[in-house]
Amino acid sequence: MDDEYITWFEELFQSTECIDIIGVCRFFDDDGNTDYMIKCGDVLLKSYEKVREILENHNHEFGNRDKSEV
Predict the structure, then answer these.
(1) Whose CA, among 2, 6, 19, 31, lies 20 to 30 Å from 51?
(2) Superkingdom of this entry's organism (predicted)?
């Protein structure tokens, strides 16, 4: 499953290095903007969805994370 995820990630984002994906290596650009956060958010969301898809395809059962049961 790891290989499946890494292959998908590299094909989609063309790298596994943050600097290559978001195009900056610092938190703010010269104007003080933080556009990278939107890019990172998209990467995280797509990655989460892909991990869930891979796990479901391999018959992983997700537990109940209801806080009232903790």
Answers:
(1) 19
(2) Bacteria
Per-domain residue ranges for the chain? Answer: 2-60
**Tens-binned pLDDT, residue by residue, of the chain (70 aa):** 999 999 999 999 999 988 788 776 566 666 766 655 667 778 889 999 999 999 999 999 887 777 665 5
**Cα separation values, 1 from 10, 50, 51, 53, 64, Å:** 14, 11, 9, 11, 22
Residue 6: other Cβ atoms inside 10 A? 11
Integer distance in angstroms from the first to the last C-alpha of the chain?
Answer: 29
Q: Distance between CA 7 and CA 5 in Å, rounded?
A: 5
Sign of CA dihedral 7, 56, 1, 66: positive
